[in-house]
Each structure stands twice: as structure tokens, then as C-alpha cells.
Amino acid sequence: MTTSRIAVIGAGPVGLALALHARSLLPQARLTVYDARPPERDVAGDARTLALSLGSLMFLERLGLWPGELARRAAPIAEVHVSQTPAAFLGARAQPEVTLSARELGVPQLGAVLGYGALLAPMQQAWFEAVAAEPRRLEARFGRPVAALKPVAGGVEVDAGVAETFDLAVVAEGGVFAEQARKALARDYGQTAWVGEVTLAGGTAGVAFERFTPDGPLALLPLPPLASRDGDGEATQDLRAALVWCAAKDADAMAALDDAQRAAVLASLLPTRAGRVRAVSPLRAFALGLNAERTLVHGRVVRIGNAAQTLHPVAGQGLNLGLRDAHALVAALREGDNLDAALRRVEWSRAPDRWGTIAVTDFLARSFTWHGPGVAALRGLGLAALQRLAPAKALLARRLMYGWR
User: Fold this and answer.
1) pLDDT tens-digit series, residues 125-156
2) Which residues pair with residue 242 across a beta bridge?
3) 5-184+289-402 CATH
């Protein structure tokens, strides 16, 4: 594309991925990244957990960030195990399940689990180094919150204390559902996600668990193991997992429980192969909902990631969808000189992936509010059928790894 000025608003993983990718593929573009946090803030210690699909890892590899140190700090996902707690199923108490295996699919791994800070810190450092190498083309305006965006002839005005005009503004500043202004498509699921960490004994490394319970889904995502010692002083290795435990707001007993009680309840809900729950960390609560724009593009403003769609965590697709947004936007901008035509291509090309992911996630999230007779049995029937249909399982795995293409 011809020389243009692009503002990226929000220096989280999605915004920085877009900026780093555009730096390489759009050599004529001038790029400015805005973020409210000061540049000296240490982001490495942010312990929030991210589930990255194989497609996202491939994107990070293109950015020069994977494997390297990121891979050493991540836990690979070799298998995904989906099941539900025992329910009346064809006249018996059964636990139908679906397993997706990297080995069966012929890929090195299905994805990886990484701390938010562990991902963000090297991405931020990479951008600072890029700015130092090309100061006339690249800028990092940290500590400069953007107060307003205003359409102007041929572009958009970005007000961050001083108003400047850009050809394109990309908003990648999302936040969590409870703190967002409501977008065109908004739905409060009436659910709370309790998030923390679990220590397990006797499980299998590299397995992610998604468990359907009567109150909502709970997920365990593998983390790098911790070395410890048993009662005889022998070295052992417990497994660590990130926990996302969803419950209905109006019937949520979690808040009244202490850590030991939560560990006991969790142990009663998990499948045996997950291992024995040894401890549960203090948990944090987040409200869950859907909050999505109907379109990504509004004039010369494009929204990507959580700024475009905030999803329920049931399928772990929020960040991965945002990274695909970033990748597709840069690809469209690279393909031609007409910026408005490129933005129309982005809107059209992203629609199947966006709406397919939104629809599946929304359906799964709302299905846990259905408590009529036979609902659990029908869900179990679906899981059992999927496990027996190899092509359907492979299709599901591809959707999780690469999105709706």
C-alpha cells in the first residue's frame, strides 16, 4: 500500500501483534501505538492465563516470538478432553466424552498455555526495539490514553491530549465484559467465572479439560509443573492447571466457600483422569457476557480483538479470534493501494470466522441456562456421537486450531 499513517490504540497482545506484523509487511506505513499504561510499568508479572491455539503460535512464530523463551515458559496442549458430570444418559448414569489429540491429528501440539505477562512483556520489548531502530516511522506513545476518535475527511482524528490525524485507527483496547460500554450485540449470561490455579497429583501433563456441569462449564488448562518433595523427601512433580469455573450468579455458592471447601467441590466435579486436587489458589470472580460489534469497520476506524467482540470463555477463543483479526487486517492492507477497498475486504473476509465463533460460543454459554428434562442427556448424546465421528472431530479440532476458514 502507499504511505499511510496508522494509529494502534491498545498495546495488549492483539494490538502489539498487529503493530509488529504491520511493521514487517507494510514498510511504507507509519505506525503509532497508544496505550494508557506508562512505558516503565512492569507487565511481566501479570498472571492471567491465555490459551493460544496452534494457529496463534504460528502467527507468533512469524513475528519472531515463538518458540524461543515464550515456548520455554509455556505449557503445550497435547490433548483436549471434553466431558460432562454423570447424568441420566440412555437409561444409565454415564459420562460421555470427546478427546482431541495432537498425535491423532498429526500436529506437534494443539496449542499452548501461557501467562498474560509472559506473552505481553516480550511483545512490548520487541515493539520498543523496533521503535528504536526506526524512530522516523514507528512510535510508542505509552502513558497517553486516547480520549476520543473523530472522523475527518480522508481519515480519523485521534485525541490523546493533542489531536492528530491518521489515515486509519485500529482499536485493540478491549477490557473485560463488566467494564465495557455495551455494543450493538450484548447479552449478560448471568454467570460468574471464578479464575485461579489448581495443583493436581496423579494427572497427565499436557491435557486440557473442559467439563460440563449442571451449573456451567469448568476448564483446566495445563501450566508448567512445579517440583516438590513427598513425605520421604523424594522429589515429586505436581501438575499445575489454570482454572476457569463458571456458575450462575443467582445460584452461586462459591463466594461463601473457603479455599479448602472449593477444592473439595472441584474434586467432586472433575473426571478421574484429571488427577487428585491437592490445592486451589484464592479465586477471582468475573462477570460473563457477550459484547460484540455488528461490523469491524466504521469509516476509517477498525475494531479488533475484545474491542470488537468479547466472548464467554467456554471455548477459549477470545484472544485467538483477536489475533486472527490482526493478521487478516494487515494482509488486506498489504494487498492493494486503496485503503477503503482493503477495509471492505477485511469486513467481508472476517465475517465467517467472527460470526461462526460468536455463534458457537454463545450457544454453548446459553445452553447452561437450560435446565429442562433431558437437556443433560441430549448434551451427552451429542458428545458420544461426536467421539465416534472421526471427520466431525477433525473438523472441530481444525476450528479450534485455525478458526473458521
Assistant:
1) 999 999 999 999 999 999 989 999 999 998 99
2) 197, 221
3) 3.50.50.60
